[in-house]
Amino acid sequence: MKLTWPPAVHLPLCLRECLDGVVSGGSRSGPCPSAPHLHAPFFQIVDISVPRIAAWNSDELPIYEPGLDKVVKACRGKNLFFSTDLDQGIRDADIIFVAVNTPTKKVGLGAGRAADLTYWELAARRIALVAETPKVVVEKSTVPINTAEAISAVLHGAGKTRFDILSNPEFLAEGTAMTDLDNPDRVLIGGSMSESGQAAVAKLADVYAHWVPRERILTTNVWSSELSKLVANSFLAQRVSSINAVSAICEASGADVDEVARAVGMDSRIGPKFLKASVGFGGSCFQKDILNLVYLCQSMGLPDVAEYFHSVVTMNDRQKERFVSRIIHGLFNTVTGKRIALLGFAFKKDTGDTRESAAIEICRRLIEERASVCIYDPKVEANQIWMDLTAATRLDRTEVEKYVTLCDSAYEAAAGAHALAVATEWDEFKGLDYAKIQDGMVKPSFLFDGRNVLDHGALRKLGYIVYAIGKPLDPKLNTNFC
Ligand SMILES: NC(=O)C1=CN([C@@H]2O[C@H](COP(=O)(O)OP(=O)(O)OC[C@H]3O[C@@H](n4cnc5c(N)ncnc54)[C@H](O)[C@@H]3O)[C@@H](O)[C@H]2O)C=CC1
Ligand SMILES: O=C(O)[C@H]1O[C@H](OP(=O)(O)OP(=O)(O)OC[C@H]2O[C@@H](n3ccc(=O)[nH]c3=O)[C@H](O)[C@@H]2O)[C@H](O)[C@@H](O)[C@@H]1O
To answer: What's the superkingdom here (predicted)?
Structure first.
């Protein structure tokens, strides 16, 4: 069997199959190109992006994800292939995973909220044009409810064969993608109740059953599956916004957010995960998917439900602004000309992804205040940072460079700084020599821990004035702001 079209980050789903060397239960196993005598499943990743495919075929993979490198190297050229030949990939496949990007619409109807399904429709039209034999087409991208129906209309309207459309949302998180895929809480498959729809559901379930226990493979109707993905991300983001809202109460009251999270999370009905207060959630999906849900609610005449979910994004925006305000007011109400070392730029640790990273907004605000920002991140590419900051500030690169310097280490970023600000919880920040760093800083030296990952007591003993999210305020910190 040949599976086509998962995007970069979903790749391990298929790879796991390759590693196990399992022949999946597909109706048409294909001969493996490198070993035609083997009727084993093989996986063709096809993408319109020539540079991305070139990177997948090189030693420098286009994304950083712990463990992914090893798996790609073990399987590439054996039963895993990367290509820009979309048509061949479509023709040969039994099951086609479509996992193209579905960003928030920038213009037109629903701009700023609705999902942009342009890439999905283009992919579907290509499949319809090229496919000559029946295909199972799997929605891997996160899409609004009813997308399967629309895609079915496109495929059957323009195509010359039968298509069964399934919803199979992806729940992995970046940074832990490999373990999430190895051991998912559940796999969700939504399909039509027709005979061929149910056969398609069974076919895909058989693929997963090679490594996922059957009781964790959940089948539903298509709409429930599509909606569940948006709801799951909204609930997760809601927990982060809830604990961040609590962090503001803690700072105003003297309570400690980590203590509160622990006490609350020990209630088995609430649970301990996703209760880490932070500078605000980022990533390509939380905000996009909530806004998508908000748009759906508005379109369905449910404005109060829309408003309820939208408050999760509003709270997240406020948390980022609150952090920046703490820096500005802490540094005696001005950061103009002051050097701030920003530790971390990725939206979370163990990824080089910066999409919607809180660091971008923090930098934008600091640039607005004419601070000098020195950024260090162990995995984010310099070009990515320049692209993010020029887009966020709407300044050209030369203007941004007046305020921003990119550094090769935390020590370089911190040299001569008035303040350190931790935006990403990279493990290496816990092991830095903060005494040495402080020696080279302007006094008093400030540290703003946007992730609560450092030992604040030890830092205070070294002489830092420390602000940490949702922790009792340092009496030496200027809090003179509304
Ligand atoms: N990144 C993640 O961790 C997760 C992403 N998702 C969902 O998966 C989808 C993809 O997300 P990412 O991989 O992050 O996006 P991405 O933007 O990194 O990758 C999408 C890929 O699709 C390719 N593409 C676009 N149009 C195409 C077409 N017509 N034919 C062939 N290839 C085409 C692009 O060149 C790009 O390489 C989104 O809907 C997202 O919400 C879901 C769960 C996790
Ligand atoms: O649809 C998606 O793209 C994915 O979105 C999230 O995964 P991801 O965005 O990769 O990473 P998360 O671990 O969820 O973190 C998201 C953001 O929330 C922040 N966060 C998370 C947890 C927490 O307790 N506190 C907190 O601030 C993280 O630092 C990060 O900025 C979901 O966790 C995945 O299940 C989902 O598949």
So the answer is: Eukaryota
pTM: 0.93
Determine whether the shortest distance from the Cβ of 174 to ligand 1 is under 6 A: yes
Question: What pLDDT, in 10s, does the model give residues 90-146?
Answer: 999 999 999 999 999 999 999 999 999 999 999 999 999 999 999 999 999 999 999
Beta-sheet strand order (sheet of 80-83): 80-83, 42-46, 2-4, 95-98, 135-139, 163-167, 187-191, 217-221
Angle at 61 between CA 136 and CA 361, to 5 degrees: 95
Is residue 122 in contact with ligand 1, taking CB distance under 6 Å? yes
Burial (0-12, 13-18, 19+ Cβ within 10 Å), 193: exposed
pLDDT in tens, 334-363: 999 999 999 999 999 999 999 999 999 999
Report the distance separating Cα 293 and Cα 235, nearest Å.
Answer: 11
Nearest Cα to 42, choosing from 59, 19, 60?
A: 19
The dihedral built from the CA positions of residue 440, 441, 446 and 452, taken in this order, carries a sign that is negative
**Per-residue DSSP letters for 335-400?**
-TT-EEEEE--SSSTT----TT-HHHHHHHHHHHTT-EEEEE-SSS-HHHHHHHHHHHH---HHHH
Q: Which of 285, 297, 363, 374 is catalytic?
A: 285
- Amino acid identity of residue 462, one-letter, is L
**Virtual torsion, Cα 356, 362, 365, 369, nearest 10 deg:** -160
Q: Using CA atoms, how far apart are residues 116 and 228, in angstroms rounded to an integer?
A: 19
Kindly give the distance from the C-alpha atom of residue 175 to the centroid of ligand 2, in angstroms, as a whole number. 10
